[in-house]
Write a structure and sequence with these properties.
By secondary structure, the protein is mostly beta strands. Helix content is 7%, strand content 37%. The chain has one domain: EutN/Ccml (OB fold (Dihydrolipoamide Acetyltransferase, E2P)). The longest helix is centred in the last third of the chain and has 6 residues. It is globular. The relative contact order is 0.28.
């Protein structure tokens, strides 16, 4: 798992059937790497979230047929922000 900050939403109206009606978020790591992640928990821009990758990401969506390899698993309510940029 990894921790990233949600920096935006991704709108994708034309997609393959395997993505169904999944919501996408743009997440950014502390090193600045930006990636698209599926989001079934309702994270908002500015939220710190933890994500899972690979096959575990498919399980995290609750629908094993969703084609994803990065999924938001939860919004972090409290986290020692000593290393987290504001």
């Amino acid at each position: 798992m990894m921790i990233c900050r949600v920096v935006g939403s991704i709108v994708c109206s034309c997609r393959i059937d395997g993505l169904k009606h999944t919501v996408f978020r743009l997440v950014e790591s502390e090193s600045g790497l930006q990636q698209a992640a599926t989001d079934t928990v309702g994270a908002k821009p500015g939220d710190w979230v933890f994500l899972t990758t690979g096959t575990a990401a498919r399980f995290a969506t609750g629908d094993y047929e969703v084609l994803t390899d990065l999924a938001v698993c939860g919004v972090i309510d409290q986290w020692p922000p000593a290393s987290a940029p504001n």
